Amino acid sequence: MNILITSGGTSEKIDDVRHLTNHATGRLGKEIAQALEEDGITIHYVHGPKAVLPKASNCQFYPIASVSELYTIMEKLLTTISFDYVIHSMAVSDYELDAATDEVLLAQTIAQYVMKQSFTTEAELTEIIKNSLFDSEALQQKAQKKISSKNEKLILMMKKAPKVIGHIKQWQPETHLIGFKLLVDVSEEHLVSIAQESITKNQADLILANDLTQISDNQHHALLVSKNGIEQRFSTKQDIAQGIKKIILSN
């Protein structure tokens, strides 16, 4: 049996010194992998740069940093290896860097766009300014190993990153996909609704729905959601790991 687990968080490079990342530790992915240390199970473990790693003899590790690196390795694995389950627990950035600029270059770029256009209303001017912000080549500073800290402002233009979870069933339709959804301080009804939207959109079989306010060192309240509603409730990472193990071994 082959299992693919993603864990930890992604990190988007600004320059050789600075990165944008999140607080994901990878502890849940680690617990799941360690629970699945069974004869006959091979785990392919894709993890972010800061993720804690499982001590499981049946793991093959694939380190990544950015969303684009995650996309590349996931496509390679899912188009070359048959997986019984994909457990996509990684906290993946919704955005990646498009351009890094400063206040002077940004102001100059907008001014040049405005001077070339004619407008008579605020709405027309707004559209011109908005369009100027899509010209990442004009905004981009020359590539630097470390962006100068002399500028008063460092302005980052972010663009939508690819949704890796949305490609998993495209790459391998027959696999079982368990996705993860994290929201913050929402009602259970809303959490379940968003999880079910993800099931439909990404062709997932199950979604583990979390609320950040219900996660701490000693607890991890989560709901395992199917298209029919709540299937199981968990209160710790260990409970989640054992619940997912039971699902996998029962099939």
UniProtKB/TrEMBL annotation:
InterPro entries assigned: CoaB-like_sf (IPR035929), CoaB_strep (IPR011848), DNA/pantothenate-metab_flavo_C (IPR007085)
Enzyme Commission code: 6.3.2.5
Tagged with keyword Lipid biosynthesis: no
Domain DNA/pantothenate metabolism flavoprotein C-terminal: 2-101, 140-248
GO biological process: coenzyme A biosynthetic process
Gene Ontology molecular function terms on file: phosphopantothenate--cysteine ligase activity
Keywords: Ligase
Gene3D superfamilies attached to this UniProt entry: CoaB-like
Protein name according to UniProt: Phosphopantothenate--cysteine ligase
Species whose genome carries this gene: Vagococcus hydrophili
Species lineage: Bacteria, Bacillati, Bacillota, Bacilli, Lactobacillales
Gene symbol of the encoding locus: coaB
